[in-house]
Amino acid sequence: MAQILTGGVGKIEVAEAVERLGLDGVDVTVSSDLDAATRLRTGTADYYLGACHTGAGASLGLLVGLLGQGACHTFGRGTPTADEVDALLVDGKKAFGFALDRIEAVAPVVARAIAGRGA
Fold first, then answer.
1. How far apart are the first and last CA of the chain?
2. Closest CA to 51 of 15, 90, 92
3. What whole-number distance in Å separates Cα of residue 5 and Cα of residue 35?
4. In angstroms, rounded to a whole number, what is the distance separating the alpha carbons of residues 26 and 29?
5. What confidence score (pLDDT) does residue 55 get?
6. Can you give the pTM of this predicted structure?
7. Residue 44 gets which letter from DSSP?
């Protein structure tokens, strides 16, 4: 089962968007960015989805600092395709940020890609 943590200003909305999908093999938990970074580093969580006004500040800043840029990606205000997300997952990205107004467009694409890969 893939453990997804949510954070940033829109952490509750992101969790709700993922939960509404009813994906098998995905568990979502609302978190703080510090807790998420710790859990990702220790392997007690698999992925992080964060939303803020820009998709790179409050949603992802601390994770970049603690996990490194190689583990993080911001979609900003863009909307990725499933193939783009798959490529990022293959590349080892674990923490994703996006803008608040993109939650309903981005969170489902990322969550479905994660569910398709398993943990």
1. 6
2. 15
3. 9
4. 10
5. 83
6. 0.95
7. S
CATH number at residue 101: 3.40.1400.10
For residue range 36-57, what is the model confidence (pLDDT) as tens digits? 999 999 999 999 999 999 888 8
Q: Look-up: residue for tokens 């006004």?
A: 53
Q: Which two structure tokens, joined as six digits, stand for 5?
A: 């943590």
Provide the domain limits for residue 44: 2-117
- Cα separation, 114 vs 94, in Å, equals 10
Q: What total of structural domains would you count in the chain?
A: 1
Q: How confident is the model at residue 118 (pLDDT cuts 50, 70, 90)?
A: low
d(CA 46, CA 74) in angstroms, rounded, equals 17
Instruction: Tell whether the model's pLDDT for residue 119 goes beyond 70.
Output: no
Q: What is the DSSP letter of 99?
A: E
pLDDT-derived band at 117, boundaries 50, 70, 90: confident
In angstroms, what CA-CA distances link 60 with 1, 14, 89, 117, 118?
A: 23, 14, 16, 23, 23
